[in-house]
Write a structure and sequence with these properties.
- The protein contains one helix and six strands.
- The strands form two sheets. Strands 1-5-6 form a three-stranded antiparallel sheet, with no helix packed on it. A three-stranded antiparallel sheet has the order 2-3-4, with no helix packed on it.
- By secondary structure, the chain is an alpha+beta fold.
């Protein structure tokens, strides 16, 4: 089967369009979801379980703070990525 010149050009254009779509959907689009807005919030430590603190935030996603030396009831400012479950304590 022999393709004409215009059919070959159409096939090349279609293939290039398909490859560009795959590259954009797998490499560029997901990176925008990895860059999250930093949120700062004043919270109260609910509990400290052997160095892991738990707090409740306004977005209703419980946050975990690793290597925490605070006690339950302490008020702190934390920083976390929007809709993520981990946070860090902001030191003044």
């Amino acid at each position: 089967m022999k393709l004409s010149s215009s059919q070959q050009q159409g096939l090349v254009f279609g293939g290039a369009f398909l490859v560009a779509g795959i590259v954009l959907s797998t490499m560029v689009f997901p990176f925008w979801h990895l860059i999250r807005e930093d949120v700062f919030e004043d919270v109260v430590i609910l509990s400290n379980d052997d160095g892991t603190c738990y707090v409740e935030t306004d977005d209703n996603v419980p946050k975990i703070i690793e290597n925490c030396e605070l006690d339950a009831g302490d008020k702190v400012t934390i920083k976390f990525g929007k809709d993520l479950a981990w946070a860090t304590v902001v030191t003044p």
